[in-house]
Write a structure and sequence with these properties.
Elements (H helix, E strand, L loop, with lengths): L8 E2 L2 E2 L21 H32 L7 H13 L12 H29 L3
Antiparallel strand pairs: 1-2
Length: 131
């Protein structure tokens, strides 16, 4: 069994190392300083991405409610249905399948994917607007 060397100490305090202090490294070496404009653009891109993800979530939630035969008289179902109908991007009747539940799942699932793609693309464009 080998003994590992312990740092020198006096009482309860550690003694400073004899190694020279390490120089401070800036957070963004050589890069431009973060300005208020960059923060604003970043925040706007973040808000666009979050809004598109919430829209996609609402559309998917309605599709799940429909597939599992949720109670259409429930207030939450009606609320999500009203939001999803306005967020469907015109894709609510794109495909007609034999089972109406699968039709809803495919059409609203496609709308959710489109929301995610649009949100990510728009957030990327907004970020590129910052010089």
């Amino acid at each position: 069994m080998t003994d590992t060397p312990k740092p020198p100490h006096t009482g309860d305090r550690l003694v400073a190392s004899s190694a020279p202090p390490r120089p401070h490294r800036p957070a963004r070496p050589g890069g431009p300083a973060v300005t208020a404009w960059h923060r604003t653009v970043g925040a706007l891109a973040y808000l666009v991405k979050v809004a598109s993800r919430v829209a996609a979530l609402v559309v998917v939630l309605y599709a799940v409610f429909t597939v599992f035969n949720a109670n259409a008289a429930n207030v939450w179902y009606r609320f999500v249905e009203s939001l999803a109908s306005s967020l469907s991007l015109g894709l609510a009747n794109l495909f007609e399948l034999a089972d109406p539940r699968w039709t809803t799942l495919v059409n609203y699932g496609l709308a959710a994917v489109v929301w995610l793609i649009i949100g990510s693309a728009l957030a990327g464009l907004i970020r590129r607007a910052a010089p």
